[in-house]
Specification:
- With 401 residues, the protein is of the alpha/beta class.
- The chain has two domains: 4-93 and 233-388, TIM Barrel; 175-220, no CATH class.
- It has 13 helices and twelve strands.
- Strand 8, helix 8 and strand 9 form a beta-alpha-beta unit.
- The longest helix is centred in the C-terminal third of the chain and has 23 residues, at 300-322.
- The protein is globular, with a radius of gyration of 22 Å.
- The N and C termini lie close together (6 Å).
């Protein structure tokens, strides 16, 4: 069985390097440029569908006026793409649950599941960017966090897991009560919603248990149910947390590894063990997703040039400040550091093939996600790179079952 490839485009509005981005400030508000990028984005998705790429996804990030990762509403994009592809799955990697209303997520994703006739997947993420997570998450008390064991980390994780459980209940049960530390429904939970004028027909034709004897709304029924009432595939982003991987194993979710392969290899077994203990047995690699930023070029110099033009700006100025494994020293050799970071797979087609073959021999992951900094990397270059991966790398990756 060959891996299911997911194309993840990080919408980076293009600029002539860091200095060009400063001159064009605030690039994220350039409506004409965003319009162009948005519609070329659809061109890439349609071409990837023709190539046999399994899925296409986007992110939830907000307020990036510099033009990095301008992707505030994944559901709208998923719905748009779904009307233009033939075989491809679409989804988000993913909804940042600490800033989301779980009922709204359950509704939106169920509709998307119907639009795609079951070719929709859902991603959930915890949120690490305080610039917008703390703002949009203010009503839950969530704060941005990394997996550092801090009080904020534990609170974010509690909210994250609580709200995912709520989404699952809303998908799977006809009438529910949601009783969490930061979210309750119906509200107020102690009395229900009192004085609902149409309680008579709701009690007779709505879901059993929604309306209490006094006419108050005592449970809620989230509509619609998902397509064929099944749970869509669920992906959860993780970078280094063993706890997140074990949680995915227990829940039957797909951990999405933004991490070096040494970490992936160790955590793949954690996943297998946790899944088995929870009665959700999985073979090594099953329900796993490895994420990489790829470039396939003709030579080392060619690939280094792509890293410089398409990735250096965001890697230095955006990834570096958030993640300690990436440099922030302006004198650092960023190109070499990108090569050594563990998140890029770059080189000639043979070199990239061999690197993936080594990874796949050790952990034959069911999914591979490829991230491109589109449209900093132009449409034609993304498609050339993607086609090379699909034709020169994927055919060499094969796992039993």
């Amino acid at each position: 069985m060959k891996p299911k490839v997911i194309l993840q485009l990080y919408p980076v509005l293009p600029a002539d390097g860091e200095e060009g981005r400063k001159r064009a400030r605030p690039l994220g508000r350039n409506a004409d440029l965003y319009h162009k990028v948005l519609h070329e984005w659809l061109d890439v998705i349609k071409a990837a569908d023709e190539m046999g790429v399994w899925g296409a996804s986007t992110i939830e990030h907000h307020l990036h006026s510099e033009g990095y990762e301008v992707g505030p509403n994944p559901g709208i994009l998923n719905a748009w793409w779904a009307g233009h592809v033939k075989q491809m799955h679409v989804g988000a990697l993913g909804y940042v649950m600490a800033v989301q209303d779980p009922i709204r997520v359950a509704e939106e994703t169920a509709i998307l599941d119907h639009i795609t006739k079951g070719k929709f997947f859902v991603g959930f993420a915890r949120g690490y960017q305080s610039r917008w997570t703390n703002i949009l998450g203010q009503f839950s008390g969530a704060v941005a966090t990394v997996s550092d064991g801090s009080a904020g980390d534990h609170k974010n994780r509690d909210i994250f897991e609580e709200r995912i459980e709520m989404v699952l209940k809303c998908w799977e049960e006809d009438a529910v009560t949601l009783d969490g530390d930061t979210y309750q429904a119906p509200f107020p939970l102690a009395t229900g919603v009192q004085g609902y004028p149409a309680h008579v027909i709701a009690s007779q034709a709505g879901a059993p248990g929604e309306i209490g004897p006094d006419g108050s709304v005592r449970r809620i029924s989230v509509v619609p149910a998902t397509y064929k009432r099944r749970r869509p595939p669920i992906f959860v982003a993780t970078s280094k947390s063993d706890e997140s991987v074990a949680y995915c194993g227990r829940m039957g979710f797909i951990p999405t590894f933004f991490s070096k392969f040494e970490t992936v290899k160790a955590q793949a077994q954690i996943y297998v063990d946790a899944a088995k203990a929870a009665g959700r047995p999985a073979k090594l690699g099953q329900r796993l997703n490895i994420v990489r930023w790829p470039h396939i070029g003709s030579s080392r110099a060619n690939v280094d040039d792509m890293l410089r033009r398409y990735d250096l700006d965001i890697y230095k100025n955006f990834y570096g400040p958030f993640f300690p494994q990436f440099p922030t020293d302006p004198n650092a050799d960023f190109i070499q550091n990108m090569r050594e970071s563990g998140i890029f797979t770059v080189g000639t087609a043979d070199e990239v093939r061999d690197e993936w073959r080594r990874m796949y021999d050790a952990v034959p992951s069911e999914h591979i996600t490829l991230i491109y900094h589109f449209a900093q990397q132009p449409k034609d270059e993304v498609l050339r790179d993607l086609e090379a991966f699909m034709t020169k790398v994927v055919p060499h990756l094969e796992a039993a079952g």
